[in-house]
Write a structure and sequence with these properties.
The structure is a single chain. The protein is of the alpha+beta class. It is 30% helix and 26% strand. It has an eight-stranded mixed sheet with strand order 3-4-8-5-9-12-10-11, sandwiched between helices. Strands 13, 14, 15, 16, 17 and 18 form a six-stranded antiparallel sheet that branches. The chain has a two-stranded antiparallel sheet with strand order 1-2. Helix 2 crosses helix 8. The longest helix is centred in the middle third of the chain and has 20 residues, at 137-156.
Protein backbone atom coordinates (compact mmCIF):
# COMPACT_ATOMS: atom_id res chain seq x y z
CA UNK A 1 0.00 0.00 0.00
CA UNK A 2 1.03 3.59 -0.52
CA UNK A 3 1.64 4.36 3.15
CA UNK A 4 3.99 1.40 3.47
CA UNK A 5 5.80 2.56 0.36
CA UNK A 6 6.09 6.02 1.87
CA UNK A 7 7.80 4.62 4.92
CA UNK A 8 10.19 2.54 2.82
CA UNK A 9 10.72 5.00 0.00
CA UNK A 10 14.37 5.82 -0.47
CA UNK A 11 14.82 9.51 -1.10
CA UNK A 12 18.24 10.89 -1.90
CA UNK A 13 19.80 13.84 -3.67
CA UNK A 14 21.77 13.03 -6.79
CA UNK A 15 23.10 15.91 -8.88
CA UNK A 16 20.66 18.28 -7.17
CA UNK A 17 17.58 16.18 -8.03
CA UNK A 18 15.24 14.32 -5.73
CA UNK A 19 15.28 10.65 -6.68
CA UNK A 20 12.52 8.36 -5.40
CA UNK A 21 12.55 4.58 -5.24
CA UNK A 22 11.39 3.06 -8.53
CA UNK A 23 8.45 1.19 -6.99
CA UNK A 24 6.95 4.36 -5.52
CA UNK A 25 7.65 6.28 -8.72
CA UNK A 26 5.99 3.69 -10.92
CA UNK A 27 2.80 3.49 -8.86
CA UNK A 28 2.27 7.04 -7.63
CA UNK A 29 3.99 9.08 -10.29
CA UNK A 30 2.19 7.21 -13.06
CA UNK A 31 -1.20 8.19 -11.62
CA UNK A 32 -0.11 11.79 -11.10
CA UNK A 33 1.07 11.99 -14.72
CA UNK A 34 -2.15 10.46 -16.04
CA UNK A 35 -4.45 12.79 -14.13
CA UNK A 36 -2.40 15.92 -14.79
CA UNK A 37 -1.99 15.19 -18.50
CA UNK A 38 -5.75 14.90 -18.89
CA UNK A 39 -6.65 17.86 -16.65
CA UNK A 40 -4.12 20.17 -18.35
CA UNK A 41 -4.83 18.79 -21.83
CA UNK A 42 -6.53 20.53 -24.72
CA UNK A 43 -9.87 18.78 -24.15
CA UNK A 44 -10.25 20.54 -20.79
CA UNK A 45 -9.48 23.86 -22.52
CA UNK A 46 -7.90 25.45 -19.45
CA UNK A 47 -10.72 24.62 -17.00
CA UNK A 48 -12.00 28.18 -17.02
CA UNK A 49 -14.77 29.35 -14.70
CA UNK A 50 -18.01 29.60 -16.64
CA UNK A 51 -16.56 27.51 -19.49
CA UNK A 52 -17.34 23.98 -20.65
CA UNK A 53 -13.77 22.87 -20.00
CA UNK A 54 -14.25 23.21 -16.25
CA UNK A 55 -17.43 21.14 -16.42
CA UNK A 56 -15.45 18.43 -18.22
CA UNK A 57 -12.77 18.57 -15.55
CA UNK A 58 -15.39 18.23 -12.81
CA UNK A 59 -16.87 15.21 -14.61
CA UNK A 60 -13.42 13.67 -14.95
CA UNK A 61 -12.74 14.01 -11.21
CA UNK A 62 -16.16 12.62 -10.26
CA UNK A 63 -15.93 9.68 -12.69
CA UNK A 64 -12.38 8.88 -11.58
CA UNK A 65 -13.62 8.50 -8.04
CA UNK A 66 -16.75 6.63 -9.09
CA UNK A 67 -14.68 3.95 -10.87
CA UNK A 68 -13.08 2.98 -7.56
CA UNK A 69 -16.23 3.22 -5.48
CA UNK A 70 -15.77 6.70 -4.01
CA UNK A 71 -18.87 8.86 -3.67
CA UNK A 72 -18.79 12.60 -4.19
CA UNK A 73 -20.95 15.48 -3.02
CA UNK A 74 -21.50 18.54 -5.21
CA UNK A 75 -21.86 21.93 -3.58
CA UNK A 76 -23.37 24.22 -6.22
CA UNK A 77 -23.50 27.95 -5.65
CA UNK A 78 -24.21 31.08 -7.72
CA UNK A 79 -21.94 33.83 -8.93
CA UNK A 80 -22.47 37.32 -10.37
CA UNK A 81 -20.02 39.14 -12.60
CA UNK A 82 -18.64 42.30 -10.96
CA UNK A 83 -20.38 44.52 -13.54
CA UNK A 84 -23.57 42.45 -13.72
CA UNK A 85 -26.94 44.15 -13.31
CA UNK A 86 -28.87 40.88 -13.31
CA UNK A 87 -30.87 39.90 -10.27
CA UNK A 88 -30.53 36.25 -11.24
CA UNK A 89 -27.09 34.60 -11.05
CA UNK A 90 -24.86 34.87 -14.09
CA UNK A 91 -23.82 31.28 -13.51
CA UNK A 92 -22.90 28.67 -10.95
CA UNK A 93 -19.73 27.23 -9.43
CA UNK A 94 -19.46 23.69 -8.10
CA UNK A 95 -17.21 22.42 -5.32
CA UNK A 96 -16.59 18.67 -5.45
CA UNK A 97 -16.36 17.08 -2.00
CA UNK A 98 -15.23 13.63 -0.83
CA UNK A 99 -15.65 12.53 2.79
CA UNK A 100 -13.46 9.85 4.37
CA UNK A 101 -14.87 8.99 7.78
CA UNK A 102 -12.31 8.71 10.55
CA UNK A 103 -11.72 5.36 12.22
CA UNK A 104 -11.63 6.59 15.84
CA UNK A 105 -15.17 6.90 17.30
CA UNK A 106 -13.91 9.44 19.83
CA UNK A 107 -12.29 11.69 17.21
CA UNK A 108 -14.17 11.15 13.94
CA UNK A 109 -16.65 13.92 14.71
CA UNK A 110 -13.73 16.29 14.12
CA UNK A 111 -12.68 17.20 10.58
CA UNK A 112 -9.52 18.05 8.67
CA UNK A 113 -10.10 19.74 5.30
CA UNK A 114 -7.69 19.12 2.42
CA UNK A 115 -8.31 21.33 -0.61
CA UNK A 116 -7.03 22.21 -4.08
CA UNK A 117 -8.65 24.44 -6.67
CA UNK A 118 -9.67 22.78 -9.92
CA UNK A 119 -10.29 25.88 -12.03
CA UNK A 120 -7.79 27.86 -14.08
CA UNK A 121 -8.00 30.67 -16.67
CA UNK A 122 -9.67 28.72 -19.47
CA UNK A 123 -9.49 29.62 -23.15
CA UNK A 124 -9.44 33.05 -24.75
CA UNK A 125 -9.55 34.38 -28.32
CA UNK A 126 -6.10 34.92 -29.78
CA UNK A 127 -5.12 38.26 -31.30
CA UNK A 128 -4.30 36.60 -34.59
CA UNK A 129 -7.45 34.52 -34.62
CA UNK A 130 -8.21 31.17 -33.11
CA UNK A 131 -8.19 30.22 -29.44
CA UNK A 132 -5.41 30.28 -26.85
CA UNK A 133 -5.60 27.70 -24.08
CA UNK A 134 -4.20 28.49 -20.64
CA UNK A 135 -3.44 24.91 -19.66
CA UNK A 136 -2.75 25.46 -15.97
CA UNK A 137 -0.61 22.38 -15.43
CA UNK A 138 1.12 23.66 -12.32
CA UNK A 139 -1.76 26.02 -11.50
CA UNK A 140 -3.46 23.90 -10.39
CA UNK A 141 -3.66 20.53 -12.10
CA UNK A 142 -0.69 19.65 -9.89
CA UNK A 143 -2.59 20.21 -6.64
CA UNK A 144 -5.70 18.56 -8.08
CA UNK A 145 -3.82 15.41 -9.09
CA UNK A 146 -2.14 15.21 -5.68
CA UNK A 147 -5.52 15.64 -3.97
CA UNK A 148 -6.99 12.79 -6.04
CA UNK A 149 -4.07 10.57 -5.04
CA UNK A 150 -4.58 11.41 -1.37
CA UNK A 151 -8.27 10.50 -1.65
CA UNK A 152 -7.32 7.11 -3.10
CA UNK A 153 -4.90 6.44 -0.28
CA UNK A 154 -7.10 7.53 2.62
CA UNK A 155 -10.12 5.67 1.29
CA UNK A 156 -8.20 2.51 2.21
CA UNK A 157 -6.32 3.96 5.18
CA UNK A 158 -8.62 6.33 7.13
CA UNK A 159 -6.97 8.22 10.01
CA UNK A 160 -8.58 8.91 13.38
CA UNK A 161 -10.35 12.11 12.31
CA UNK A 162 -12.71 12.51 9.36
CA UNK A 163 -11.17 14.01 6.23
CA UNK A 164 -12.99 16.35 3.85
CA UNK A 165 -11.33 16.60 0.43
CA UNK A 166 -12.61 19.61 -1.50
CA UNK A 167 -11.93 20.46 -5.15
CA UNK A 168 -12.70 24.18 -5.08
CA UNK A 169 -13.78 26.20 -8.10
CA UNK A 170 -13.89 29.95 -8.57
CA UNK A 171 -10.44 30.36 -7.02
CA UNK A 172 -9.04 32.32 -9.95
CA UNK A 173 -11.93 34.75 -9.68
CA UNK A 174 -11.32 35.50 -6.01
CA UNK A 175 -11.36 32.35 -3.85
CA UNK A 176 -15.10 31.97 -4.39
CA UNK A 177 -15.26 28.23 -3.73
CA UNK A 178 -13.41 28.27 -0.43
CA UNK A 179 -15.16 31.45 0.73
CA UNK A 180 -18.53 29.90 -0.04
CA UNK A 181 -17.72 26.66 1.74
CA UNK A 182 -16.56 28.48 4.87
CA UNK A 183 -19.75 30.56 4.93
CA UNK A 184 -21.96 27.58 3.96
CA UNK A 185 -20.06 24.59 5.38
CA UNK A 186 -21.27 21.07 4.67
CA UNK A 187 -20.33 20.10 8.25
CA UNK A 188 -20.36 22.03 11.52
CA UNK A 189 -17.63 24.62 10.98
CA UNK A 190 -16.67 24.30 14.65
CA UNK A 191 -15.69 20.67 14.01
CA UNK A 192 -13.01 21.68 11.47
CA UNK A 193 -9.70 21.54 13.29
CA UNK A 194 -7.26 22.15 10.45
CA UNK A 195 -7.01 22.91 6.73
CA UNK A 196 -4.35 21.84 4.20
CA UNK A 197 -4.17 23.59 0.81
CA UNK A 198 -2.32 22.33 -2.28
CA UNK A 199 -1.77 24.96 -4.96
CA UNK A 200 1.04 24.98 -7.54
CA UNK A 201 3.21 22.14 -6.26
CA UNK A 202 4.51 20.90 -9.61
CA UNK A 203 7.54 23.11 -10.32
CA UNK A 204 9.94 22.08 -7.55
CA UNK A 205 13.32 23.58 -8.47
CA UNK A 206 15.97 20.84 -8.10
CA UNK A 207 18.73 23.42 -7.74
CA UNK A 208 17.20 25.59 -5.03
CA UNK A 209 15.34 22.55 -3.60
CA UNK A 210 12.96 24.79 -1.62
CA UNK A 211 9.28 24.20 -0.86
CA UNK A 212 7.26 27.04 0.65
CA UNK A 213 5.09 26.11 3.63
CA UNK A 214 2.67 28.90 4.53
CA UNK A 215 1.47 28.41 8.10
CA UNK A 216 -1.50 30.42 9.35
CA UNK A 217 -2.49 30.10 13.00
CA UNK A 218 0.03 27.32 13.66
CA UNK A 219 2.29 27.37 16.69
CA UNK A 220 6.08 27.56 16.21
CA UNK A 221 6.32 24.04 17.65
CA UNK A 222 3.80 22.66 15.13
CA UNK A 223 5.63 24.40 12.28
CA UNK A 224 8.98 22.95 13.36
CA UNK A 225 7.47 19.47 13.50
CA UNK A 226 5.96 19.88 10.02
CA UNK A 227 9.30 20.98 8.58
CA UNK A 228 11.04 18.01 10.19
CA UNK A 229 8.81 15.65 8.20
CA UNK A 230 10.18 16.86 4.86
CA UNK A 231 12.17 14.34 2.81
CA UNK A 232 15.93 14.51 2.70
CA UNK A 233 17.11 16.98 0.09
CA UNK A 234 14.05 19.25 0.39
CA UNK A 235 14.38 22.52 2.26
CA UNK A 236 11.13 23.94 3.66
CA UNK A 237 10.83 27.72 3.85
CA UNK A 238 8.14 28.99 6.20
CA UNK A 239 5.83 31.90 5.42
CA UNK A 240 3.79 32.85 8.47
CA UNK A 241 1.47 35.21 6.68
CA UNK A 242 3.54 38.23 5.63
CA UNK A 243 4.17 37.54 1.92
CA UNK A 244 2.02 38.45 -1.08
CA UNK A 245 1.09 34.79 -1.47
CA UNK A 246 -0.05 34.24 2.13
CA UNK A 247 -3.67 35.23 1.46
CA UNK A 248 -3.82 34.41 -2.24
CA UNK A 249 -5.20 30.87 -2.18
CA UNK A 250 -7.95 28.73 -0.66
CA UNK A 251 -6.45 28.34 2.81
CA UNK A 252 -6.98 32.06 3.50
CA UNK A 253 -10.77 31.98 4.19
CA UNK A 254 -10.20 29.19 6.73
CA UNK A 255 -7.45 31.11 8.53
CA UNK A 256 -9.67 34.21 8.50
CA UNK A 257 -12.21 32.14 10.42
CA UNK A 258 -9.62 31.12 13.03
CA UNK A 259 -9.05 27.63 11.64
CA UNK A 260 -5.33 26.74 11.55
CA UNK A 261 -4.30 26.29 7.93
CA UNK A 262 -1.26 25.60 5.80
CA UNK A 263 -0.39 25.94 2.13
CA UNK A 264 2.15 23.87 0.16
CA UNK A 265 3.62 25.81 -2.79
CA UNK A 266 6.68 25.43 -5.06
CA UNK A 267 6.68 29.07 -6.11
CA UNK A 268 5.92 31.50 -8.91
CA UNK A 269 7.63 30.97 -12.28
CA UNK A 270 7.77 32.62 -15.70
CA UNK A 271 4.87 30.48 -17.01
CA UNK A 272 2.50 31.57 -14.25
CA UNK A 273 -0.90 32.49 -15.74
CA UNK A 274 0.44 32.00 -19.25
CA UNK A 275 -0.46 29.46 -21.96
CA UNK A 276 3.00 27.94 -21.46
CA UNK A 277 2.14 26.43 -18.06
CA UNK A 278 2.15 22.92 -19.55
CA UNK A 279 2.80 19.39 -18.28
CA UNK A 280 6.17 19.04 -20.03
CA UNK A 281 7.61 21.49 -17.48
CA UNK A 282 6.46 19.59 -14.39
CA UNK A 283 9.11 18.15 -12.08
CA UNK A 284 7.54 14.70 -11.63
CA UNK A 285 10.01 13.50 -9.02
CA UNK A 286 9.47 16.68 -7.03
CA UNK A 287 5.68 16.44 -7.28
CA UNK A 288 5.79 12.81 -6.16
CA UNK A 289 7.99 13.64 -3.18
CA UNK A 290 5.73 16.54 -2.16
CA UNK A 291 2.61 14.37 -2.41
CA UNK A 292 4.19 11.79 -0.10
CA UNK A 293 5.31 14.55 2.27
CA UNK A 294 1.78 15.98 2.42
CA UNK A 295 0.40 12.49 3.05
CA UNK A 296 2.80 12.02 5.95
CA UNK A 297 1.82 15.45 7.33
CA UNK A 298 -1.93 14.75 7.09
CA UNK A 299 -1.56 11.33 8.73
CA UNK A 300 0.24 12.98 11.65
CA UNK A 301 -2.23 15.83 12.07
CA UNK A 302 -5.42 13.85 11.54
CA UNK A 303 -4.22 11.12 13.88
CA UNK A 304 -2.70 13.05 16.75
CA UNK A 305 -4.45 13.05 20.10
CA UNK A 306 -4.98 16.79 20.07
CA UNK A 307 -4.72 19.46 17.37
CA UNK A 308 -3.64 22.84 18.78
CA UNK A 309 -6.15 25.67 18.60
CA UNK A 310 -5.59 28.65 16.32
CA UNK A 311 -2.51 30.54 17.48
CA UNK A 312 -3.01 34.28 17.19
CA UNK A 313 0.06 36.30 16.33
CA UNK A 314 0.35 40.05 15.84
CA UNK A 315 0.30 41.42 12.32
CA UNK A 316 0.21 44.72 10.50
CA UNK A 317 -2.55 43.90 8.04
CA UNK A 318 -0.29 44.07 4.99
CA UNK A 319 1.49 41.77 2.53
CA UNK A 320 5.06 42.31 1.39
CA UNK A 321 6.87 41.54 -1.84
CA UNK A 322 9.54 38.83 -1.96
CA UNK A 323 13.04 40.26 -1.67
CA UNK A 324 15.57 41.73 0.68
CA UNK A 325 13.39 44.64 1.76
CA UNK A 326 9.92 44.80 3.28
CA UNK A 327 8.23 46.50 0.36
CA UNK A 328 4.47 46.80 0.80
CA UNK A 329 2.52 44.94 -1.86
CA UNK A 330 -0.99 45.09 -0.45
CA UNK A 331 -2.58 46.96 2.47
CA UNK A 332 -5.59 45.21 4.00
CA UNK A 333 -8.69 47.27 4.61
CA UNK A 334 -9.19 48.02 8.29
CA UNK A 335 -5.71 46.85 9.27
CA UNK A 336 -2.92 48.47 11.25
CA UNK A 337 -0.94 49.42 8.15
CA UNK A 338 -3.91 51.22 6.63
CA UNK A 339 -4.53 53.11 9.88
CA UNK A 340 -0.87 54.11 9.98
CA UNK A 341 -1.02 55.41 6.41
CA UNK A 342 1.22 52.88 4.64
CA UNK A 343 0.67 52.45 0.91
CA UNK A 344 1.72 50.03 -1.79
CA UNK A 345 5.40 50.56 -2.64
CA UNK A 346 6.40 51.87 0.80
CA UNK A 347 9.46 50.20 2.36
CA UNK A 348 9.03 49.37 6.04
CA UNK A 349 12.37 49.69 7.87
CA UNK A 350 11.69 49.58 11.63
CA UNK A 351 9.18 48.51 14.24
CA UNK A 352 10.15 50.46 17.35
CA UNK A 353 13.95 50.18 17.37
CA UNK A 354 13.97 46.80 15.60
CA UNK A 355 15.21 46.87 12.01
CA UNK A 356 13.20 44.87 9.47
CA UNK A 357 15.31 44.37 6.38
CA UNK A 358 13.42 41.43 4.89
CA UNK A 359 10.09 39.59 5.16
CA UNK A 360 11.82 37.05 7.45
CA UNK A 361 12.98 39.91 9.70
CA UNK A 362 9.40 41.14 9.82
CA UNK A 363 8.14 37.74 10.99
CA UNK A 364 10.89 37.53 13.62
CA UNK A 365 10.26 41.03 14.97
CA UNK A 366 6.47 40.64 15.07
CA UNK A 367 6.95 37.57 17.28
CA UNK A 368 8.46 39.87 19.93
CA UNK A 369 5.12 41.65 20.37
CA UNK A 370 1.51 40.84 21.23
CA UNK A 371 -1.74 41.78 19.59
CA UNK A 372 -2.86 45.18 20.86
CA UNK A 373 0.67 46.49 21.42
CA UNK A 374 1.26 50.06 20.32
CA UNK A 375 4.43 50.35 18.24
CA UNK A 376 6.26 52.98 16.24
CA UNK A 377 6.59 52.24 12.53
CA UNK A 378 9.23 53.76 10.28
CA UNK A 379 9.17 53.49 6.51
CA UNK A 380 10.52 55.10 3.36
CA UNK A 381 8.32 56.53 0.63
CA UNK A 382 10.07 57.95 -2.42
CA UNK A 383 13.23 58.42 -0.31
CA UNK A 384 11.32 60.35 2.34
CA UNK A 385 11.45 58.91 5.87
CA UNK A 386 8.04 58.62 7.50
CA UNK A 387 6.94 57.36 10.90
CA UNK A 388 3.86 57.02 13.06
CA UNK A 389 2.39 54.81 15.76
CA UNK A 390 0.13 51.82 15.12
CA UNK A 391 -1.67 49.20 17.15
CA UNK A 392 -0.83 45.63 16.14
CA UNK A 393 -3.80 43.48 15.18
Amino acid sequence: MLFQLTRRAFIAVISGCLVIAAKTQDDLQGRLKRDMTILAGSEMAGRGNGQEGLNKAIDYVINSYKKIGIETEIQRFPYHFSNSKNEEPDGYFSNVIVTVKGCDPELNSQHVVIGAHLDHLGSRPSYGGGITIYHGADDNASGTAALMELVRYYQKNPPARTLLFIHFTGEEWGLHGSKYWVSHPTVDIKSVRFMVNLDMIGRFDPIKAVLTFTAMGMSPEAIAKAKAMAPKGMSVETDRGTSIFANASDHAPFAANNIPACFFFTGIHSDYHRPTDTVDKINWNGLTAITLYVQRFITEYAGREDIPEFQYRPNLGMDSEPGRKVRVWRVHQGGSAEAAGLKQGDILTHINDKAVGSPKDLERVLDLFSRGDRVKLKWDRDRIRMETEAVLQ
